[in-house]
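Quick note —
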Amino acid sequence: MLKSPFATRAPFAGLSIAGAAGRGVIVTDRDGLGIATVIVHRGQHAALAERLRERFQIELPLGPYRATAGDLALAGTGPQIWLATQENGGNAFTSFLKAAIGDLASVSDQSDGYAVLRLTGPKVRDTLTKTISIDMHSRAFKPGDVASTVASHIGATLWRVDDLQGVCAFRIAVPRSFAASFRDHLVEAASSA
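Predicted structure written out below.
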């Protein structure tokens, strides 16, 4: 058997994100997430919502919101489109999801296509405000809210998760090929926050 010259690695592997540390922003690479895009088939919205409710006890979000049940989450990213994630699901997540809902929706693996970071800390909103043109205030962007936006000229999906020890927390997904560029912008924004 031939040994492959290719090796898997996390999107932010080898890219120091320590520049944000000590400045009020805590950044954690979320490598290993199972990520899939779900697009409902025409006329199947009600059936998809019912199937997800029955099999996973999760409500299909209507609009730019995120719903969770256990380690499964669905984030509304567009009309009839969701970004589905599963903690530690990896690439097997898409096959699992296709088996469960593939007759009602198109399910496309994004696990290797996105780089995802968890962002928290007392200066996280100030930092995000420098990279994203949406209101980051707690009244405007609440836990469960989702935005498909641009972060420093890079397409991104941002969602707010439950606060961690009283400090707001976010996750942001950017295309894996832009991980280094996004990291550079994030470190620069955090260093001046």
